[in-house]
Amino acid sequence: MELIQQLTQGLGVDESQAKGGAGLIFQMAKEQLGKGDFAQVANALPGISNLIGEAPAGGKGIAGAIGGLAGMMGEDSGGGQLANMAALATGFSQLGLNPNMATKFIPIILSFTQNQGGEGIKDILAGVLQ
Fold first, then answer.
1. Cβ atoms < 10 Å from Cβ of 88
2. Would you say residue 81 has pLDDT above 90?
3. ∠ at Cα 129 (64, 67), nearest 5°?
4. SS (H, E, C) the chain
5. Of 30, 77, 112, 113, which one has the greatest count of Cβ atoms within 10 A?
6. In 3D, which of 85, 78, 118, 101 has the Cα closest to residue 20?
7. How many CA atoms lie within 13 Å of 90's alpha carbon, on the beta-carbon side?
8. Which of 65, 110, 63 is nearest to 85 (CA)?
9. How far apart are CA 120 and CA 23, in angstroms?
10. Contact assessment for residue 44 and residue 121, using Cβ atoms and an 8 Å cutoff
């Protein structure tokens, strides 16, 4: 998949780390987006389900659990974004990557999404990733 090549070449990660990291990000997006919005993203990016399957097992559902705690803090406080980044950091650590790498994956994923699905699909995804 072209996205995996962009991640491995651009960030110096191996293929399994690229797949796992992208999978974590798409898993988080799936948990945060409504079914209709995620379906649009998935239709524009064939193979997204396979990438979600590559996410570390411990990373799945973490965004939801942490998101619930952050929700108690209130969205206005930025708790949602904090929860998303905390969940990604945990998953990236499980992949043997520095948790800060999540912030380097996101621009590449958004650029790829824009190239594949257009500005509207990128904006849907960016709404939960930025």
1. 27
2. no
3. 20
4. CHHHHHHHHHHCCCHHHHHHHHHHHHHHHHHHCCHHHHHHHHHHCCCHHHHHHHCCHHHCCHHHHHHHHHHHHCHHHCHHHHHHHHHHHHHHHHCCCCHHHHHHHHHHHHHHHHHHHCHHHHHHHHHHHC
5. 113
6. 101
7. 16
8. 63
9. 21
10. yes
Average pLDDT over residues 63-89: 54
Crossing angle (nearest 10°) for helices 62-73 and 79-94: 150
* pLDDT tens digits, one per residue of 5-38: 999 999 999 999 999 999 999 999 998 898 999 9
**CA distances (Å), 36 to each of 33, 40, 48, in order?**
8, 6, 15
Task: Yes or no: say if 70 and 32 are a contact pair by the CB < 8 Å rule.
Answer: no
Cβ atoms of 64 and 97 closer than 8 Å: no
What pLDDT shows up at residue 64?
A: 43
Contacts (Cβ under 8 Å, ≥6 apart) of 126: 110
